[in-house]
Amino acid sequence: MIRVVMENIVLFLLPTGLYVGYVLLTREASDRSKVLDEAPLIWLFFAGTLLVVIVLIAFGSTSGGRPGQHYEPPSMKGGRIEPGRIE
């Protein structure tokens, strides 16, 4: 569970990290002290939220068995691996 939470936090903070990295690489050394003061934090918040929502929709599981069906995991039969299936 902690892995899922950490992945979503990283996805949420990714736009801000990219922005800060870009600004630090392109600005002069004297201008780097105010990176987050001048950042478009509202837009970065919305970009991070949108990124998390898109990933959750894209990788969300919407398929599966009907109630009462059970999952048979992959197994070894006759020296071959039989794939898992829902019965």
Question: What are the main properties of this structure?
Answer:
single chain, 87 residues, mainly alpha, two-stranded antiparallel ribbon, elongated
Task: Give a short summary of the structure.
With 87 residues, the protein is mainly alpha-helical.
Your description of this structure?
- The radius of gyration is 22 Å and the shape is elongated.
- The two termini are 28 Å apart.
- It has 87 residues and is mostly helical.
- The strands form 2 sheets. The protein has a two-stranded antiparallel ribbon with strand order 1-4. Strands 2-3 form a two-stranded antiparallel sheet.
- It has helices at residues 2-26, 41-59; strands spanning 71-72, 75-77, 80-82, 85-86.
- The mean pLDDT is 88.
- Strand 2 and strand 3 (80-82) form a beta hairpin.
- It contains 2 helices and 4 strands; from the N terminus they run ααββββ.
- The protein has one domain.
